[in-house]
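Limitations
The structure tokens in this dataset are predictions for the assembled complex, not deposited experimental models. Users should treat interface geometry with appropriate caution, especially where small molecules or nucleic acid strands are included. An illustrative entry is reproduced here so readers can see what is and is not provided.
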Amino acid sequence: MSDRPLRLRFAPSPTGFFHVGGARTALYNWALAQREGGTFVLRIEDTDEARNRPEWTHGIIDALAWIGIAADDPHFEGPYFQSHFADAHVAAANQLFEAGLAYYCDLTAEQVQERAKASGKPGYDGYSRDRNLEPGPGRVLRFRVPAGTTVVTDLVRGEVSFDNANTEDFVLLRGNATPMFLLANVVDDVAMRISHVVRAEEHLPNTPKQQMLWEALGEEPPAWAHVPVLVNEQRKKLSKRRDKVAVEQYRAEGYLADAMVNYLMTLGWAPSGETEIVPWSQIVDEFRLEDVTHSPAFFDIKKLSAFNGEYIRKLGVERFIELCAPYLTADDVPWPREQFNPSVFSAMAELVQTRVTRLDQVVAMVDFLFLTDPPIDDDAFAKAMSAPNAIALLGEVIGAYETAEWDHDVLKETLEAVGAGHGLKPGKAQAPVRIAITGRSVGPPLYEPLVLLGREETLRRLRAALERGGGPAA
RNA sequence: GCCCCCAUCGUCUAGUGGCCUAGGACACCACCCUUUCAAGGUGGCGGCACGGGUUCGAAUCCCGUUGGGGGUGCCA
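Predicted assembly:
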């Protein structure tokens, strides 16, 4: 730790989407920067030219903004691009070479491997340490790892010591003279006066190397903090291949940013008090690296959804309607787009709100209101219609609804009275009507939709169901 | 193989030697409420990996075992 001004950095490499693990790391950095009046530096590590596209950077900035890390916030600095500092990386490498702290080696990667295999010791064996090679094409610059022990002081893990004998003379500059990650990362952190490096645990094994680099460059190393990785159900690090890790995807499915942020923060840490659902302001007040757990955390979509459901329910109904709009007017809605009626949805919104845990679920919740003939779940239909008296009941309901006052309570009482006539409780009585109207056996409450659909449409669907169920044409 | 990290209910966690008969949340189960489904309410199930120490006292400290994870690139 040092007395330097608090400067944290988040340094993702652009890969086309924003990883939830990266989001959590960014949030940890952000919470600290906000409370301590520090600076959050965004640096895009785009040195791997093979995978690097400008639009991916926009994706990262956009995703960060979504979780509340806004580029126009005074605590935010950047983005910087690592590729722009290549000269500085090479200059630092030269400095190390001139000082005798690094040396060139002409062994190819294959040769290094062969030697390792032959000797039985893994890694590079220091073959060119004392050969005094000059720079040249194909020659890599390697760091001369000193003897001794490197002790990394980590804010979440305490002191971790590494025997330098286990650290090979790692590569600083490739054979084509371009800088490697370890070097570039340190040189940039030095240049940007980074005081705290808060990143995922997978970087812990790199840390002794980077700390040696800081020292070789004549700098006091930053405070380190390695937070546990996020894992899947198999307890493996979340991977792009097997797991759903893209923040953008969760966003598209209708997870609320606040819910995502809150949930992410509870992975490896917990706010005080009996509830985990807390506002960001409380998180900022309470979050401390020293309190971060030491073991990996399972990213549980079920729990995320529970958080999301809670956040959705807390929304004012107007806000809920607003947030649902994109899903209801998307290109892939199941109904003919011109049949969508916003005021009908608004009338239903409150009933829908307690029944979804993701915004994209609202579509299936109200589709029957905008579909001329909602698809009917065959099994559910068969089951509802095979109940004793179901057909008779449907016929009677049709008769009653032909003249009944078109009012929620009247509709309810009428249907229940017909049901009672057949010895059916309200729950049973509404089943055939529900399937006739919505095509499903479950859904939002029944009578509000009936009112919205109107007498004519309600009767049309009821008659169609009666016919389909084999009853007399009514 | 080697290096490093880690270990409390199924999961995320609270716990920093006595407030622990181990608390909360998600999930699950039951009941209540109820026009289905939710939501809400009440209750329940369920854990300190194991073995040794240290101590009057250990989930908390130490050692070992076992089990997990991460790293081991001229990737980042």
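Some entries come with short summary sentences. For this one: Chain A has 19 helices and twelve strands.
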